[in-house]
Structures are given as C-alpha cells and as structure tokens.
Design brief:
13% helix, two-stranded antiparallel sheet, alpha+beta
Length: 106
C-alpha cells in the first residue's frame, strides 16, 4: 500500500454509477508531494474498485495553498454480463439412431 495516508486525507463516495474521490493535502511545504489521476487510479486498484473513465480530473499538491484540495469523479466500471451456459441434450444409453441400414423390414 502507498504512503498517501501520510501526506493526504482521502475520502471516497459512491453516488449512483459514479465514484467521487476527495483529496486534501495535509500541509504546505515539507517537499512537494503530488496526487494526480494516476495515483487516484492506483488508489482504486488498491481498494479493489474498478473504475471507468475520469469525468473530472485535477491535481493536488502541497506546494501552494490553492492546490491543497481536489476532487476526481470516475464512472464505475460495468461488470461484464456472464454468458449463459447452454448444454446439449443427453442421449439415452443404448439408443441407436435409425439409419438406412437399420430400418425394420416388413
């Protein structure tokens, strides 16, 4: 797991078919740390949440007070439909399909 919890407060909400990720940097200075869309996707992967495309992107870093907060909005990935399993009908034991050579002669 990443050390984002040391530098950022992360809050996630699932709203209908979207995921909102709100990130706050804890302090200004102490070496610049970034939280970008790639880090947001990695965070979701660590939480076992599949997301689709980003509807809203931003960048959060601790270099300036105006950049301490940001919100990403992602679509939830649709789960693929499971293919329906079909089976062929079973044939009865000992049943022989009639052919031209096995027809009953009268």
């Amino acid at each position: 797991m990443s050390n984002w919890t040391d530098s950022f407060d992360i809050e996630m909400k699932i709203v209908k078919d979207q995921v909102h990720l709100h990130v706050d940097a804890r302090s200004v200075g102490d070496g610049r740390t970034y939280f970008k869309t790639a880090e947001a996707r990695t965070y979701f992967r660590e939480q076992n949440i599949e997301v689709g495309s980003a509807l809203k992107k931003t960048t959060v870093h601790n270099g300036h007070e105006s950049c301490l907060k940001g919100t990403w909005i992602f679509e939830l990935a649709e789960k693929p439909a499971k293919p329906r399993r079909t089976r062929s009908p079973r044939k009865k034991k000992g049943f022989v399909e009639p052919t031209a050579s096995t027809e009953i002669k009268q």
